[in-house]
Amino acid sequence: MDAPSDPTRDLARIAATLRRRAETQLALGIPLPRFVPPPVVEEAPVVAVTSDSSGQRSLDMPVDENPFAALTYDELNQKASVCTRCDLCHTRRNVVFGAGDPNADLMFVGEGPGHDEDLQGVPFVGRSGQLLTKIIEAMKLTRDDVYICNVVKCRPPENRNPLADEIENCKPYLARQIELIAPKVIVALGTFAAHFVLDSDERISRLRGRFHERDGIQIMPTYHPAFLLRNASSKRDVWEDMQLVMAELERLKTSDATSDA
Predict the structure, then answer these.
(1) What is the mean pLDDT of residues 191-200?
(2) pLDDT at 259
(3) Helices (H), 31-156
(4) For the segment 8-45, what is each residue's pLDDT rounded down to a tens digit?
């Protein structure tokens, strides 16, 4: 049976071997490798969920970090109408704040205004807006029964995708809109809306078809009407999503009635 290993003697042997190897490298003119310490990774701070005086929670932005947290709906609208927080203010014709019932149970959030929306200052009035109107009417609702807005309030030039800084600078507006309207259900139309509202980078095809709860709000991601104009076969998927939305609104309505009884 071999004698048990002595850790101290083993370490000394390893050190002597390394020293001899280093001396040999130096004698041959080979520089010794430099030791580079690994980078220090700092843990991200934990952000607590905060509430305003009414007990409402802000989606995607703590209330105490939102510069518009104290504004009323009309004040927020006025603030947005003269906004210069990003370069889109130089190319827009009109700020497209939102439209519909500011007390709606159902809220639709799109990506950003297009050409027609920029001209009229109203969200979803172009071809994709006309399709959204048909979807809403098929749900036995009207545009006046719901609230419609976008992630960014100004049209990106040539209808390009909104840039990260544009979304970031517009974030306080939508966060406060959601807080003021306090919808029970949000339909996120398309990738940008779904990523913003859910704070997710999953593909819309993987997010749709089921509810995601955030800050007590039921969120249904689905395809944008503009996508449906190019991919008519996906209209069935969107209608299935809207049927789930209708059922959820009815469930919440029944639950509220029962709790009030």
Answers:
(1) 94
(2) 76
(3) 73-81, 115-120, 127-138
(4) 555 556 555 556 655 655 545 545 444 333 333 333 23
Residue 255 has a pLDDT of 85
Q: Would you say 131 and 228 are in contact if contact means Cβ atoms under 8 Å apart?
A: yes
Extents of the domains making up the chain: 63-260
Q: What is the mean predicted confidence (pLDDT) over 179-204? A: 96
Rounded to whole angstroms, the Cα distance separating 179 from 173 reads 10
Question: Which residues are CB-neighbours of 98 under 8 A, at least 6 positions away?
Answer: 77, 123, 147, 148, 149, 150, 177
Helix (H, G, I), strand (E, B) or coil at 20: helix
First to last CA, the chain: 84
Distance from C-alpha of 78 to C-alpha of 40, rounded to nearest angstrom: 46
> How far, in Å, CA of 53 to CA of 233, rounded?
46
pLDDT score at 61: 54
- Angle (CA) 209-249-73 rounded to 5° is 105
Give, as one character, the DSSP assignment of residue 99.
E
Q: Are 195 and 117 in contact (CB under 8 A)?
A: no
The pTM for the full model equals: 0.76
Single-letter amino acid code for the residue at 45 = P
Q: Domain 63-260, what architecture?
A: 3-Layer(aba) Sandwich (3.40)
